[in-house]
Design goal:
There is one protein chain. The chain is of the alpha+beta class. Helices cover 34% and strands 16% of the residues. The protein has 14 helices and 15 strands. Strands 2, 6, 7, 8, 9, 10, 11, 12 and 13 form a nine-stranded mixed β-sheet that branches. It has a three-stranded antiparallel β-sheet with strand order 1-14-15, with no helix packed on it. It has a three-stranded antiparallel β-sheet with strand order 3-5-4, with no helix packed on it. A hairpin with a 5-residue loop joins strand 6 and strand 7.
Length: 484
């Protein structure tokens, strides 16, 4: 017997399979139970890409072949000690005592292949036992790592810009080498004055050293600049350089000229230079913020040859400096005018030369990032050589972020549109990622949350890093097109 029923009279059958996720939120309140039974959980899941990059670029062999470790270690090898300190700084723990917070973290110990970090006293004995030459050796490691990163990340820059600057680190103990010198924010306090050079295009740290509190001499400046030129990869053909008035000396100009570098340096106020400015014929400067401009050839006392000087003049009085603020050293006042003078071998018009120098402000932000985020100001010892070694470890941790960002850049991005991700932001987006490390059937894996918003970028980064292979001429690029 056939029954004639309306199609819409019957209820729709229930869907088979797993039910949908409940839309109501988790209700957390004061009475919510909690426990400490979770195992192999880590808050630093973002260390996995760092470890992958270092492994693929053969960082361990490079460190062991370059850095001399004479101390016989038992709990860990010399490379493990160095990597533990660098990773601690990268995470945000610039003090050796703070490494106790990650001593049992499964991600950190898994990368180091240990069961736990040794106590602070053991770490401190290793750091103090490093030879003073370790600082230069760590800088050599970073130079070779830059070459490998550029090859694998397909960075082919033929023109680069070097920004050189100094910073002031106030110290409050009895550190060797501390001096009472230029310290505008803490006048009368002892300090160090490290010198650093950054690559403007990729924001990498290329050269630098921890110095005592005295202003650098001309010979020290020239030595630093020559070391910075040597760190550049072989494909670089043209070099531009910018520096403030602290580097205004013949030795710096000579070093730039010998390297074939196009440079611009802020000039310092001298009596002869002021007389020269007064005698010049000034013309309006509509394409700058100044009221007048001029250029001339001038040879200061003690210089080997005359150089091109360009100057900007402002009719208005300089704005009053607020209490505690640093006086703008790029300007000097005389006879009712305020001057801004540069020495340069650039052939560009005055407005373009001034614009080019103004881009150097990015270097000050990079130094601030290194000081605040990479723990560059954390000088752990009274001994100057130990602090020099720690200085280079902090800058190596800073460079780890720059190298990861080169691998993590968008396809087809140009130098003009590529943005810099600071170490602090990178930690929040890519490092502080909750994860669970599991082991099953002799295999170890990492599980991340399905709600991680950057999972697409994270997966893309891992895919690129895992493709790094050593080809016939060297490291084969894993990205296209090239960054040039």
């Amino acid at each position: 017997m056939v029954k004639n029923r309306n199609k819409g009279s019957e209820k729709s059958p229930a869907k088979q399979g797993s039910a949908a996720v409940a839309p109501e939120p988790n209700k957390i309140n004061a009475s919510t139970p909690f426990d400490f039974s979770g195992k192999n959980l880590t808050a630093y899941g973002g260390l996995f890409p760092v470890a992958t990059m270092l492994e693929k670029l053969d960082f361990q062999s490079l460190m062991e072949a370059t850095v001399t470790v004479k101390r016989v270690t038992k709990v860990m090898g010399g490379y493990q000690f160095l990597l533990a300190m660098v990773l601690g700084i990268y995470i945000g723990f610039s003090r050796l005592s703070q490494l106790s917070f990650i001593a049992k973290d499964p991600m950190v110990t898994g990368i180091l292949k240990i069961t736990g970090l040794p106590p602070q006293s053991t770490l401190w004995r290793f750091l103090s036992a490093l030879h003073g030459s370790a600082a230069q050796q760590l800088l050599t490691v970073q130079t070779e790592m830059r070459r490998r990163v550029w090859a694998a990340a397909n960075v082919k820059l033929k023109t680069v810009t070097l920004d050189t600057d100094t910073t002031v680190h106030t110290v409050y103990g009895k550190q060797q080498g501390a001096r009472k010198s230029y310290n505008p924010k803490n006048k009368g306090k002892k300090s160090y004055q490290p010198i650093l050079t950054f690559l403007a295009e990729t924001r990498e740290y290329v050269a630098g050293e921890l110095r005592n509190g005295d202003r650098p001499t001309g010979k020290q400046i020239a030595r630093h600049l020559r070391s910075a030129f040597k760190t550049l990869p072989e494909g670089v053909e043209k070099i531009y350089a910018r520096a403030d008035s602290g580097f205004y000396c013949w030795e710096a100009v000579e070093a730039y000229q010998q390297a074939g570098c196009q440079f611009i340096i802020v000039a310092r106020k001298t009596a002869r230079l002021v007389e020269k400015l007064k005698a010049m014929e000034w013309k309006p400067s509509p394409e700058t913020d100044a009221d007048g401009e001029c250029e001339f050839r001038y040879q200061p006392d003690g210089w080997g040859n005359a150089c091109r000087f360009v100057a900007l003049r402002y009719d208005k009085e300089p704005e009053p400096v607020k209490a505690g603020a640093v006086e703008p050293y790029q300007l000097f006042e005389n006879g009712g005018y305020t001057y801004r003078v540069f020495v340069t071998n650039l052939e560009d018009p005055i407005n373009l030369a001034a614009w080019f120098y103004n881009q150097r402000a990015g270097a000050e932000n990079l130094i601030k990032e290194a000081n605040n985020d990479a723990g560059l100001t954390a000088h752990p010892s009274r001994r100057f050589d130990v602090n020099c070694n720690h200085f280079q470890m902090a800058m190596l941790a800073y460079n780890l972020n720059c190298w990861l960002m080169l691998f993590n850049r968008e396809a087809g991005v140009s130098l003009e549109t590529m943005k810099h991700t600071t170490l602090q932001t990178a930690r929040l987006r890519f490092l502080f990622v909750a994860a669970k490390i599991w082991r099953h059937a002799g295999r170890t894996g990492i599980s991340y949350s399905g709600h991680y918003e950057e999972r697409g970028i994270f997966q893309r980064l891992m895919d690129r890093l895992r493709k790094i292979t050593v080809g016939a001429p060297g490291l084969a690029p894993v990205m296209a097109p090239s960054l040039s």
